[in-house]
Amino acid sequence: SDVCSSDLFTRWAHLVLGVALAIAPVGAYLAVAGRWSEPPGVLLALAGAVLCWVAGFDILYSLQDIEFDRKEGLHSVPAAFGSQGALWISRGLHAACAVLFATVGVFMPELGSWYFVGVGMIAAMLIYEQSLVRADDFRRIDAAFFTINGAISLVFFGLVVVGRLLG
Fold first, then answer.
1. What is the pLDDT of residue 167?
2. Cβ-based neighbours of 151, under 8 Å, separated by 6 or more
3. Domain-by-domain residue ranges, the chain?
4. Residue 134 β-bridge partners
5. Angle CA 144–89–43, to nearest 5
6. May I ask the CATH architecture of the domain 3-166?
7. What's the mean pLDDT in 61-75?
8. Which residues, 6+ apart, have CB-to-CB distance to 49 below 8 Å?
9. Which pLDDT value is given to residue 2?
């Protein structure tokens, strides 16, 4: 069940979870800077990237619950669109995530080339994550969900720091 049991009401509960986590970097920026980003699109792109990343991996993780969701009348992307449809939606969200992370770097050239190295690494990890899960084989969901997403978090943090320090 996703944030506030939104899966009782909408198949887009994965996006609700994404929004819940996407506001964290916005809130952190506002707390530190005391103002909205300049240009304004930086925070919107960052929040959008986090939203798409989280919703994409939550859809992957929820594939293993597809039969339970259908039996219990819970709404989820896999229950609504089937395994193959859910995989395509997750892939689209992860592609949008990579584009939005790159957009942050375009808006903030001070992050330097290391940031884009990180975005490339994240895109590669998202592609690998997607390759681990098939519509008829969910055995590697834990590796896709826990291992890859943990690595993505560390790569993003590390290369943002390096980009800020080295420009």
1. 67
2. 125
3. 3-166
4. 137
5. 85
6. Up-down Bundle (1.20)
7. 89
8. 96, 97, 98, 100, 101, 103, 104
9. 47
Structure token pair of residue 27: 């809130």
Q: Could you give the 3-state DSSP secondary structure of residue 44? A: helix
pLDDT in tens, 21-59: 999 999 999 999 999 988 889 999 999 999 999 999 999
Q: Token pair of 66, please?
A: 């597809």
- CA-CA distances (angstroms) from residue 34 to 29, 38, 65, 123, 161? 8, 12, 42, 31, 20
pLDDT at 107 (0 to 100): 93
User: Which residues does 40 contact at the CB level (< 8 Å), separation at least 6?
Assistant: none
Tokens representing 23 are: 């506001």
Cβ-based neighbours of 79, under 8 Å, separated by 6 or more: 11, 66, 69, 70
pLDDT, tens digit (0-9, with 9 covering 90-100), for 94-152: 999 999 999 999 999 988 899 999 999 999 999 999 999 999 988 898 888 889 999 99
Q: Which residues on adjacent β-strands are paired with residue 137?
A: 134
- For the chain, how many residues are written? 167
